[in-house]
Design a protein that fits this description.
This protein is α/β, with parallel strands linked by helices. The protein contains 6 helices and 8 strands. It has one domain: 3-Layer(aba) Sandwich (Rossmann fold).
């Protein structure tokens, strides 16, 4: 890592369940339905500020298939993302996949677990993917990180879906995920 400039490192962040509270029904997480329903995780702002102060780029990468499935408008999804950026101004970029997904007849290269959103952000911001992290709360986030060549931290909220690949770390909260990133990049002297 020593030869990689700080500006080239990134922490990619899932939105729902990481930065904001997911709405969980029957063990499955769902996004908020409006900007007014967006409720940040209690540790979101401070944790993002810690990563930014350590020199990481911060990019949100979020699947929003309800748009492609006709359950939410693109305007509402974009308004939710805009509200997120207003509440966490240290975010550098938001990448969104609005496609419904291959199982709904709308395959793409950007929907997690595919790495398209991370690759697009890396090209735009000159990010070194091998020096970067993905923090998420679903199996798609872990698989996406690995597909892009990043390390994955999984926040275990106890959803009713199994992991498919093993993340590098499993934690209980976003702040614990951030502490893991910082400890790994900047270990304490022994």
């Amino acid at each position: 890592m020593s030869g990689i400039a700080a500006r080239n490192r990134c922490v990619f962040l899932d939105r729902d369940g990481v930065l904001n509270k997911a709405i969980v029904r029957n063990g499955t997480p769902y996004p908020p339905n409006s900007p007014e329903e967006l409720e940040l995780s209690s540790d979101a702002v401070g944790s993002c500020e810690r990563l930014k102060q350590a020199g990481f780029r911060l990019v949100v990468v979020t699947n929003q298939p309800d748009v492609g499935r006709g359950k939410q408008t693109r305007e509402v999804a974009e308004a939710i993302n805009q509200r997120l950026v207003e509440l966490i101004p240290v975010l550098d970029r938001v990448e969104v996949c609005f496609h419904a997904g291959a199982e709904h007849g709308e395959p793409c290269e950007c929907r997690k677990p595919k790495p398209g959103m991370l690759e697009r952000a890396a090209a735009a911001l000159d990010i070194e993917l091998s020096a970067s992290w993905m923090i998420g709360d679903r199996w798609q986030d872990v698989d996406c990180a690995h597909a892009a060549g990043c390390r994955a931290i999984f926040i275990d909220h106890g959803y009713r879906e199994p992991l498919r690949e093993k993340p590098e770390f499993i934690v209980a909260s976003f702040s614990e995920a951030v502490a893991t990133v910082l400890r790994t990049h900047y270990p304490s002297p022994t």
